[in-house]
Amino acid sequence: MNAQVLVVLGAGGIGQAIARRQGPGKTILLADFDDTNLTAAADELRGAGHTVTTQPVDVASRESVAALAAAAQALGPVVQVVHAAGVSPVQATAQAVIAVDLVGTAIVLDEFGAVIAPGGSGIVISSMTGYMLPRDPGRDHQLAFAPTDELLELPFLTPESVPDSGAAYALARRANHLRVQAASLRWGERGARVNSISPGIILTPLALDEMSGPGAEGYRRMIDASPARRIGTTDEVASAAAFLLGPEASFITGTDLLVDGGVIPALRAGLPTG
C-alpha cells in the first residue's frame, strides 16, 4: 500500500470518533490492547466505508509500540498519529496507570517521532486532570526530559510515592502535557508537529466507569459548576483534533488544548465542584 496512513492507538469512543473524522482517503491502522474492542471498532469503521487494518498493541511495551510503528511505516507515509489509549483510576492500579498512561505515552512519542512523515502531525489524548496537579518545576522538568526508560526510576513515581490510582492519573496526565512539549522539538526535526488535547467529562465507556465509581457525586458537581453545564461528546473532541492535526494549526506544536466545558476555570474560581 502507498496511501497516507492514519495511526490510531486506542479503539475507544474518542479514538473511533477521530478515526471517522480523519480517516477518509487514508489507510487507518487501528491498534488496541483489547482484541475484542479492536475487532468491533474496526468492523464498524469498515462498515462506514473506511480502509482499516488492525494490530494489537501494549503501549507500556516499547517492543510492542516499535512493532506498530514499523507496521505503520510499511503501509505508507505516516501522516497522522492519534494516541488515545489509556486507563482510568477506577480501571487500574496506580502502577498500571503510571505504566500505561505515563510511560506508555512517552514510548509512543518516542517511537512514532522516528517514523512520522515530514509535514505530519500527532495528537495525544490526555485529560483535564493534568491541570489539577500543582506545578513543581523540579518534578515537571524530570517528567518532561528524563529518558523514557528511566521514568520509573524517578523517586516520585515509585510505588511507595504514589498512594493511589487517582494520584497516579494526575501525575500521568500532567506528564503527558510535558512530554508532548519536549517531543515537539524532536518531531520538529522531521518537519512534523505534535500536540495534546485534555478532554473534560466526555461520554465514553471510560467516563461511565468513573461516574459510577466513588467519585460520581464529584463529577456531577463539576458538570453543574462548569459554564457548559453538560457532558461533552466524542465528536467535539474529534473536532478539536481535526483542527490540531490539520493545516490550519501549522504554527501550533508542543501545546495542550483544554476541551472541558469550563470545568478547570470553575475549579480555579473556587466554585463548589468538589
Please render the helix and strand layout as text:
Elements (H helix, E strand, L loop, with lengths): L4 E5 L3 H10 L4 E6 L2 H13 L3 E6 L5 H14 L2 E6 L10 H20 L2 E10 L11 H9 L19 H25 L3 E7 L5 H7 L4 H10 L8 H12 L10 E4 L3 H6 L6
Parallel strand pairs: 1-2, 1-4, 2-3, 4-5, 5-6, 6-7
- How many domains? The number is 1
Task: Give helix and strand order, one letter per element, not per position.
Answer: EHEHEHEHEHHEHHHEH
**Mean pLDDT reading:** 94
Strand order of the largest sheet: 3-2-1-4-5-6-7
What summary fits the major beta sheet? 7 strands, parallel
Any idea what the CATH superfamily is called?
NAD(P)-binding Rossmann-like Domain
Low-pLDDT residue spans: none
Roughly what fraction of the amino acids lie in strands? Answer: 15-25%
N- to C-terminal distance = 51 Å
Describe the structure.
- The chain has 274 residues and is of the alpha/beta class.
- The protein has a single domain (5-260), classed as Rossmann fold.
- It contains 10 helices and 7 strands.
- A 7-stranded parallel β-sheet has the order 3-2-1-4-5-6-7, sandwiched between helices.
- It is globular, with a radius of gyration of 18 Å.
